[in-house]
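pasting for ref
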Amino acid sequence: SSRTTGRQDLSSALVSRSGPSTLTKLPGRAGWMTTTSPRSHQPDSVLHKLKLSTREACRRFKSGEMDWAVRATSAAAAGDKTPVSLVLGGDGFCGWPTALHLSEHGHKVIIVDNLLRRKIDEELGTQSLTPIKSPEERVAAWKEVSGNDIEFVNMDVSESLPEVMDLIGKYKPDNIIHFAEIRAAPYSMKTPGNKAETVRNNILGVHNVLISMLEHVPDAHLIHLGTMGVYGYGTVDGAIPEGYVNVCMGKKEMEIVAPYHPGSVYHTTKCLDNVLFNFYVKNDQLRITDDLHQGIVWGVETPETSRDPRLVNRLDVDSDYGTVLNRFAVQSALGLDITPYGTGGQTRAFINIADTARCIRIATENPPNKGERVKIFNQVAESHRVRDLAGMLEKISPAGSRVKNIPNPRNEKPENELEVVNQNFRSFGWDPVLLDQGKAQELVDTIVKHKDRLIMNNINPTSFWGKKQADACQEAEPAEAAPAM
């Protein structure tokens, strides 16, 4: 294989002469990709097959999407089948931008979602800070701006196995991207009912999908979004590995899944998912990438969602679903106290929302072989200590916010170090977006734009890991807004 490192012009990206498969370094974030050159084709016929105007091709080239042009052009010219991807939970914070990103990169996308996340908003008396449209309006807007169709199916994959089997049998997907789980640790700890429903929804949903895959598409690729929280924090001496560790059991050396130390009912369900995945890979040779153990996601927009206001991603800022950076950014933007839990000495892994979508796409392009063990990637870009993030957001607050530590509603170590191995995605050329003061400022500016939509009733913690934590939080003085400036 040869490696091309020089910048290629648009014509060479769209027109490829005869040749063998080539490992090509392409501009943009996709990095080293294997591309197969078609024997010959004309650029106008390729653009016609892709339903792509010259102007749109130029836009994608200039924005660093050369990898898309080469891969999609080669596939279209060679008559390759368009990959069919089911995005389960595709109306959610991670699912929606991932669905758009896959569609933008040549996938036929079907979103499957029962809109539970929107119903939880109603249950909690809150809403996305950004004004998200209905699924039907979203996919119609995407069709207008991209020319690509995305189907929407309203279905709960945890409820009816026959319906899930019919779904998989109808679309016969190449990829199943599984986001359809109740995802918030605080929400999963809120009440006994929440704990029970989180386990029921998450485990049954995964199992229904596995059974349906086995019956209808045993060669499909299941990609499951996990979480770094399965490992706990401060439990590993050294770097957290990507899924597997070498151990000695008596005199026998073996490689096992890295031990789990989940920190909530939600995180526990992710561990149980992995047990199911390993069984079906061992017993039936399904092809599974689990888990993409993801860090805390920050940000709102991606290159796809920013193309039209109707495509905007949701932004959760409440204490149950708002991730720590988004919550601090809201507090900073609106003059509220910025409230790290406990000492703020917790160190956590982070990833930008646009990189979540990119990593999912990279995973679809690099499936495991049939019979290969479950693939486990650490989907993280960097780590930060929580109090350092609070200090950054205090510094850029346009409304004079101040840091005010409050009792921790969680049962966790007050301080921890965190080192994470993330070489799997790096080996595919992933170059992540990193958080800095400028990126944090962009997030604050977005929040200021939508500040009139903020509902204040659960900015402070309303879910607790136990009575001890609940009593400590309720006795504390509530966080307040900064003085008007």
